[in-house]
Automatic annotation (TrEMBL):
Repressor as UniProt keyword: yes
Signal peptide residue numbers: none
InterPro entries registered for this protein in UniProt: Homeodomain-like_sf (IPR009057), HTH-type_TetR-like_transc_reg (IPR050109), HTH_TetR (IPR001647), KstR2_TetR_C (IPR041490), Tet_transcr_reg_TetR-rel_C_sf (IPR036271)
Organism encoding this protein: Rhizocola hellebori
Residue ranges of the TM segments: none
A GO MF term: DNA-binding transcription factor activity
UniProt name for this protein: TetR family transcriptional regulator
Stretches assigned to the HTH tetR-type domain: 9-69
DNA-binding region in chain numbering: 32-51
Length: 219
């Protein structure tokens, strides 16, 4: 099983992690410096010293999350070469993050509208666009070599986003259905719309992809 990512020590990182937990639990609007300061046993002035504003904390949350997703996606692509394996691995990674890095995933996804609207989040938008282009490129490669059905690569890539973007609203990683089972079901659903030959992605292949993704996320 994956464990949490190691974080650099220091007050600044403590503050950002506490902010992420609060946004995941209560949302951005209900998160405030007073509660974070009380949790960490510091003054609100210390938070202001490190970050200035709550918007700056949100910016760093969004950028850190997307950089991690891109780094993991690049490791996955380096470890695979078939479009179907790559799409499946990206789905597994997205589901595993919901379970093993829950606060970051929920905090990012529940405040996605800020990413669309805030001028301060331009760099985070660029990172998200880069990730979107990576996924779309994998789908396009699969169409080019006949692995996937012909069609609009951008639209088909949305199947991937749609399958994981709102998981935070319904998936309970402590419930009876584990992340590997959820990921396998998501892969089946997405592959059913993508593969030109649906018999090509077996249960054994899913197990292999799951193990590969866990190695990539733990790197």
């Amino acid at each position: 099983m994956l464990t949490g990512m190691a974080r650099p020590s220091g007050r600044r990182d403590e503050i950002l992690d506490a902010f992420i937990r609060s946004v995941a639990e209560r949302g951005y609007e209900r998160t405030n410096f007073g509660d974070i300061a009380s949790e960490l046993g510091m003054s609100k002035g210390t938070i202001v010293h490190h970050f200035g504003t709550k918007d700056q904390l949100l910016r760093e949350l969004q950028e850190r999350y997307m950089r991690q997703r891109l780094d993991e996606a690049q490791r996955i692509l380096a470890a695979t070469d078939q479009p179907a394996d790559r799409v499946a691995a990206l789905i597994y990674a997205a589901v595993f993050y919901q379970a093993y890095h829950r606060d970051e995933a929920v905090a990012f996804q529940r405040e996605i509208l800020h990413l669309r609207e805030s001028p301060a989040l331009e760099d985070a938008r660029k990172l998200r666009a880069e990730y979107s282009a990576l996924v779309t490129g994998v789908v396009r490669d699969g169409m080019a070599d006949g692995t996937f059905r012909p069609g609009d690569a951008n639209l088909m890539a949305l199947m991937f986003y749609g399958s994981v973007q709102w998981m935070w609203t319904w998936y309970d990683p402590t419930g009876r259905v584990g992340p590997e089972e959820i990921a396998a079901q998501q892969v089946d659903l997405v592959m059913g719309g993508l593969l030109s030959d649906q018999g090509r992605f077996s249960l054994a292949k899913r197990d292999e992809i799951s193990a590969l993704v866990q190695r990539c996320l733990a790197a």
